[in-house]
């Protein structure tokens, strides 16, 4: 293999246009070797952008590419990843890696047999709000950590982000892997796990469809879990809220951190005025290390910024949240009773 990694792309949707292509243009050591998409309109757009296009995945896999970026709806990730590794390609998968942890384990087993490098685009690890939270905890500015609340509120499912020529509202359908848990929940789960605040215990959860009571996918998720370090972790996703909510509230035995947005954060101490925390250069990063580590791993076996095992751990947590939500009981007066066991 040459020093340049030739990357094929499966799925030429908006996430590729708006996130991956701008990032790839900034990186050395990687070039786009071809694009596959199921829709003629997206292939035509890719061709106008100067890329070689393929109307069949096997044709792209037979071309001289070294790796494949999978940027299709989640329900197709397992099949495409297995085809890619069996064709001797390395793989970078858009989040979520798969629909379930079991599917992700199948990719790991296939990659081990074929000696393929596989990573997952968990780009929210590099958001300034998360990196600030991580730094504040590492520097013990809050004292001993007691709880972490992670929230994502928005008005609407974000289905309009999909391209019209494929199926714009696929995020609202179960068969494609839609719903809040797989869309944003995987980001929040990965972030909470990356804080490394101890092994988590039982999960308690509620998942609902707020917009339509008989909705096909979830748009509201609330989950809590305690770690063996006695830190309470919670994640809250609400696709029906037009009210801004803090991204993070993190408490310790000396102070509490409130992260309002990617650019605004405050430290609260009892009896003192809130202190503004500036986002430093450490926080103002980007997901480039996912790609640079992938390039290095393909060339020389270097470590990955996001490992498949880490992605599997996040999927295990999502599986636990689904299972706990199934066991949640609703009383006749409408109050919710949380329970991870029955």
The whole-number mean of residue pLDDT values reads 92
| Rg from Cα | 21 Å
Total of DSSP H or I helical runs spanning 4+ residues = 9
Q: Strand tally, please?
A: 16
Main sheet: strands, sense, barrel? 8 strands, mixed
Helix-strand category: alpha/beta
- Uncertain residue ranges: 329-333, 337-342
Distance between the termini: 55 Å
Structural summary, described in words:
This protein has 342 residues and is an alpha/beta fold. It contains 9 helices and 16 strands. The protein has helices spanning 14-25, 40-48, 57-62, 77-86, 101-114, 128-138, 180-194, 288-300, 308-326, and strands at 5-10, 30-36, 53-54, 67-70, 90-94, 118-121, 145-153, 200-208, 220-227, 232-238, 248-252, 256-261, 264-268, 275-276, 329-330, 336-337. The strands form 3 sheets. An 8-stranded mixed sheet has the order 8-9-10-7-11-12-13-14. Strands 3-2-1-4-5-6 form a 6-stranded parallel sheet. A hairpin with a 6-residue loop joins β13 and β14 (275-276). α4 (77-86) packs parallel to α5 (101-114), α5 (101-114) packs antiparallel against α9 (308-326) and α7 (180-194) crosses α9 (308-326). The radius of gyration is 21 Å and the shape is globular. The model is unreliable at 329-333 and 337-342 (pLDDT under 50).
């Amino acid at each position: 293999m040459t020093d340049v990694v030739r990357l094929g792309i499966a799925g030429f949707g908006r996430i590729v246009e708006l996130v991956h292509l701008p990032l790839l243009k900034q990186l050395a050591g990687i070039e786009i070797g071809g694009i596959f998409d199921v829709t003629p309109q997206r292939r035509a757009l890719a061709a106008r952008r100067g890329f070689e296009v393929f109307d069949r995945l096997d044709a792209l896999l037979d071309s001289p590419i070294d790796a494949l970026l999978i940027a299709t709806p989640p329900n197709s990730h397992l099949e495409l990843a297995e085809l890619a590794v069996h064709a001797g390609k390395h793989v970078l998968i858009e989040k979520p890696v798969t629909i379930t942890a079991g599917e992700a384990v199948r990719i790991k087993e296939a990659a081990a047999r074929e000696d393929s490098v596989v990573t997952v685009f968990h780009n929210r690890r590099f958001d300034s709000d998360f990196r600030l939270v991580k730094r504040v905890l590492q520097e013990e500015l809050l004292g001993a950590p007691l709880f972490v609340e992670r929230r994502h509120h928005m008005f609407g499912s974000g289905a309009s982000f999909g391209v019209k020529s494929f199926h714009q509202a696929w995020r609202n359908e179960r068969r494609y892997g839609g719903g809040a848990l797989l869309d944003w929940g995987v980001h929040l789960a990965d972030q909470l796990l990356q804080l490394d605040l101890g092994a988590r215990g039982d999960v308690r959860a509620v998942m609902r469809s707020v917009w339509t009571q008989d909705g096909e996918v979830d748009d509201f998720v609330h989950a809590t879990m305690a770690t063996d370090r006695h830190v309470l972790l919670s994640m809250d996703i609400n696709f029906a809220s037009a009210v801004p909510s803090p991204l993070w509230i993190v408490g310790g035995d000396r102070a509490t951190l409130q992260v309002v947005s990617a650019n605004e954060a405050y430290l609260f101490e009892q009896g003192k005025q809130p202190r503004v925390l500036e986002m430093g250069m450490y926080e103002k990063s980007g997901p480039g290390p996912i790609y640079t580590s992938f390039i290095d791993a393909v060339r020389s076996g270097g470590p990955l910024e996001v490992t498949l095992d880490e992605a599997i751990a996040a999927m295990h947590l999502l599986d636990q949240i689904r299972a706990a939500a199934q066991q949640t009981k609703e009383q006749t007066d409408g109050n919710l009773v949380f329970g991870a066991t029955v």
